[in-house]
Amino acid sequence: MTEPWQTPPLSPPPSSPPPPAGTPVGAQPVYVTTKTNGFAVASMVLGILWIYWIGSILALVFGYIAKGQIQQAGGRESGGGMAVAGIVLGWVGVGLLLVFIVLIAVGTSSLAWY
Fold first, then answer.
1. Is the separation of the CB atoms in 87 and 60 below 8 Å?
2. 83 burial class (0-12, 13-18, 19+ CB within 10 angstroms)?
3. 3-45 pLDDT tens trace
4. Cα within 13 Å of Cα(72), Cβ side
5. What is the pTM assigned to this prediction?
6. Which residue of 7, 60, 105, 109 is surrounded by the most CB atoms within 10 Å?
7. For 79-101, what is each residue's pLDDT tens digit?
8. Residue 46 burial (CB < 10 Å; 0-12/13-18/19+)?
9. 82 closest CA partner among 109, 46, 112, 31
10. Measured CA distances, 29 to 18, 23, 32, 63 (Å)
11. Domain spans in the chain, listed from the N-terminal domain onward
C-alpha cells in the first residue's frame, strides 16, 4: 500500500500490435515527420488578403510552387490543402480584377458619349 503523499506505481505500458505479415523479425517502424510547406501558408494568406490584387497574383505563384514542392517531397511536407485554397482564392481575386477593369472600361466609354 502506498502512503497518501506517494504516487501509485505505474501500470506496465500497453503491448504494441503484432507486425504485419511478412515483416522481418526485429524490424523497427520508421517514423517520418512532416512539416508544412511555407509557400502553401503564404499562398493561402495572400489569397485571403488580396492586397490590391497583387496578393492574388502572388497567391497563384506561391500556390503552384508549393504544390510542386509538396509532390516532390514524397510525403515529407504537408500543406496541399492550403496551397489549393491559395490557388482558388488567387483565381477568384484575378477574376474580380478583370470584372473591375471591364466595369471601369464600360463606365468610362459610356461617359465619352455625353
1. yes
2. buried
3. 666 666 677 667 767 767 777 776 677 777 789 999 999 999 9
4. 7
5. 0.69
6. 60
7. 999 999 999 999 999 999 999 99
8. buried
9. 46
10. 12, 10, 10, 33
11. 36-108
